[in-house]
Amino acid sequence: MMERSLSGIGASQGVAIGPARLIAERVLVVKPRTIPLKNIPAELERFARAIEQTAVAIKKIQLKANKLTATHQAEIFEVHLSLLQDPMLVDRTREYIRTQRINADYALLQALQEYQKLFNELGDETLQDRLVDVKDVGKRLIEFIQGYKRTNPFKFQTPGILLAHNLTPSDTIHLDRNKVLGVATELGGIGSHTAILTRALGIPAVVGVPRLLASCSENETIIVNGASGEVVLRPKQKTIHRYTLKQQAIARFEHSLRPLVDLPAQTRDGKRIHLLCNIELPEEAADVKAIGADGIGLFRTEYLFLSKNKLPSEMTQATEYLKAAKTLKPLPVTFRTFDLGGDKLPADLVVEREDNPFLGYRAIRVSLDKPRLFKAQLHAILRASIHGNVRLMFPMISTLQELLEAKELLEEAREELRKKKIPFDEQMPVGMMVETPAAVMLSDELARHVDFFSIGTNDLTQYALAADRGNLQVSHIYNQLDPSVLRLIALTVKNGHAAGIPVGLCGNLASDPLATILLIGLEVDDLSMAPSILPEIKNIIRSISWRGLRALGRQALRLNSYEEVRHFAAQLLEQWVEEIPY
Ligand code: PEP
Ligand code: MG
What is the mean pLDDT of the chain? Predict the structure, then answer.
């Protein structure tokens, strides 16, 4: 078959070449088999065992859900358990095994089909939800009858490039970076948390490649170019050679930046810019120091949930936070309180499915709604602050009320620790993310209540342009360099500085070399980014002069389209910095 190139969105830089590993949704195959009369009791026994195993599996999930969620959600599992005694499902399956002398899974399938037929005939909309439950339980039962174990499909025996329709952040966090050479998915946008995670893991990735799975077969060689968004299927030797040279050029470039580790991020004329890291996993903290960063600007604490799939206790959190704070000391570590919801849902935090999850129950809204969970986290962060280098910030503030409520709970948490005589840093800076247009418009007022702002352009862009950060259909609108976003950044900086507080930026724009000069021109005080990109950004900063940049920033604010801003930024970069081999 011929070489073919597909294009998507470059999500994480780098080039990967290797065999394709397709992750397909498992389709259950159930075929009828006649059972000899003497084996009927054994077949009935197989069915009975599957019921027991399903009950155990459901109870396990129920237990986790109970710890975390509203009672309504846990009730769903009661319904699932009751279905395991439903005569229409259970007795009928037994009857078919006996009378038709067929295998248990096929007998169950018939019972399920009858269930569905009956519900459809009744034509009652409300029964549709019940049907979803019946199918869910039925699928589990069939899996147990067939002896299928739900395993982690992302565990590879040998290295390869993962191709999937979609990946959730919790799937991504379990990827083994030694085995997964690259990632390509059919869905997803540049701002999705999956894209962010692949960058954190340093795995080249392309998202939003239509018809990817249908165009490629297992084990075929493919190339993923995370910078251009290209995926090459069945490459010719010549193409493989060209990309191997590119890989080598990137490795040489990265190597050439190594001496920067010990040098400060400062312009030629001496303006110091603080370069911080975004981290998702506690073990990344050690790397932050090693690459010569000025600290952690965003610790996405919700990944403690996502990686373990269960609620971390106050002590577990305190231990993890303290470890990071100690490792980084005296450099600052900024813990952002849980930003759950949106596309970041632990599999077992069962919350109602929402039509617009990014506009729904997310981040500070969840925390304020679950004060016990929130307080445990606040206690843990306070406990970790004893070394004097911890900062705390709240995500997704959209009203002054939310900020005041969050601060009130923080004050209560402080008081509780004081009472128990547990030491913490009384001066710990408290900031907030500015990532909703509402927060930008209120930033003059909000600035009076916090010690710092951190602009989250990943969300700010989606909310400003009304374009879901993970939706491929609108990814042409979702541009963090859109002039509307630049103006929102400028207003936040102006209001923050007028109130005397520093304004940092921790969205993906800080990880984009194209944006660095502009952001400094807009007087953003610190940039927090994926650790892998930091040496490159430091190189840009050490190549430019601060003088004149503010005027350029003002010039950029007069541009009217994304294309103009991009062109302007590219020209600036070209003017100051030698070619970058991506
Ligand atoms: C942002 O929105 O820019 C941000 C940094 O937070 P997250 O990507 O975790 O939503
Ligand atoms: Mg955000």
Answer: 89
Please give all residues whose CB falls under 5 A of ion ligand 2, grouped by chain where several chains appear.
435, 456, 459
Measured distance CA(531)–CA(574) in Å, rounded: 23
> SS in 3 state form for 230-259?
EEEECCCHHHHHHHHHHHHHHHHHHHHCHH
Measured by CA distance, the residue closest to atom 1 of ligand 1 is 456
What are the Cα distances from residue 418, in Å, to 251, 320, 337, 382?
51, 22, 21, 11
CATH code for 267-576? 3.20.20.60
Model-level pTM?
0.74
Mention the CATH class of domain 4-24+159-256: alpha beta
pLDDT: is 8 or 139 the higher one? 8
Catalytic residue among 80, 193, 274, 379: 193
Task: Check if 506 is active-site.
Answer: yes
Is the pLDDT at 20 greater than 90, yes or no?
A: yes
pLDDT exceeds cutoff 60 at 349? no
CA separation (Å) from 128 to 111, 139, 350, 512? 17, 16, 19, 46
**Residue-range domain boundaries for the chain:** 4-24+159-256, 37-146, 267-576
Question: Which CATH fold topology does 37-146 show?
Answer: Enzyme I; Chain A, domain 2 (1.10.274)
Distance of CA 66 to the CA centre of its chain: 24
Can 4-24+159-256 and 267-576 be said to share one CATH topology? no
